[in-house]
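Something for you to look into today, if you have time. Just paste the record in under my message, thanks.
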Amino acid sequence: MFQPKSILVPTDFSESSERAFRKAIDISKAYSAKLVVLHVVRVLPLSVGDYWLEEPLIRRVQADIEKASRDEVAKFVGKFPQAEGVPVEADVRSGIPYEQIVQDAADRRVDLIVMAPRGKTGIKEHLLGGTADRVIRHAACDVLIVRGGE
């Protein structure tokens, strides 16, 4: 019987991610599993159109975004009183979301990824396959997609 001990919940702070987190809390309580909430910050480009930005400036802005994201993850988790008593760890990574989610799951050896089918994505992700599609294809562990509200 499948009994997850560690569950990864990627979030982009969307309503869909909130639904996925609520489902992960329920699963965590049923199996006494630890939750890891992960937000991935996209890496800023070094150029915009014909303009190149200085690398030290980009690094400083990227660090500020990551710090703000850590605060946002803490606020996100705090919105769910039902998570009280559940061991929750929060993390922020930088990079391509699906790659970082798959890598984080492998690094932590999680048993399950619980995520929304779509979050705050644009038309490009919709046409080429979104983050959830890519996580499903590349993750070594099971992936649960929580539907509703799409």
